Amino acid sequence: MSKSALVYMGVALCAIAAVAFVALRNPATTGGAVDMSAVAAMREGDMKKLNFHPELRKVSEKTFDAENGTKMTLADYEGQYVLLNFWATWCAPCRKEMPMLSDLQAEFGGDDFQVVTLATGRNAPPAMKKFFDEIGVDNLPLHRDPQSAVARDMAVLGLPVTALIDKNGSEIARLTGDADWSSDNAKAILRNVIGTTQDQ
Asked: Quick check: 100 and 183 in contact, CB under 8 A?
């Protein structure tokens, strides 16, 4: 084999190795581990219940009823970080934490982040609207999962459950039960995850 052929082969092997290295470092291409250890180490109080998954989790592709009457899937939110909250009108802890989620939407909501609320099970639209009116929430969506299809697909057992979803539509963390989402710690965690520099 000629010297030039050996040189070309060496360059090609280096290029292949570089591509493989980048792919292995990128969870979006491999479905691999999510390196959120630094963020997880920040957790205090209620946020200790926010469990970061060692592997990215695929979110449901099932449809749900949007507030405007159309059908949606969670893929419609790709390109944004989403804090997805499963709730119901009969859920007392949901009533307690929903205003805090509303405050998060007011502070962080925008092109990069959305709080998305999904009422799962039998929740009549008038009852959902009354629920929000009574607690003074007017900036969160009244989406419905009437057959609990999305909830079942994502192994939601009990309410409330809140999932943190990345821009690629993969679940990276989950909190079961209600939590103090108004805390400085919760906001600091979200800032680190979504990469914002907003003031407290």
From this structure: no
Tell me how far apart the alpha carbons of residues 199 and 47 are, in angstroms, rounded to a whole number.
Answer: 20
Give the Cα separation of 113 and 63 in Å (integer).
Answer: 21
Helices 184-194, 92-108: crossing angle, 10 deg rounding:
50
Instruction: State the amino acid at position 170 in one-letter form.
Output: S
Residue 23 has pLDDT above 80, yes or no: no
Q: Is the dihedral of CA 43, 44, 50, 51 positive or negative?
A: positive
The model carries a pTM of 0.81
Tens of pLDDT along 65-97? 999 999 999 999 999 999 999 999 999 999 999
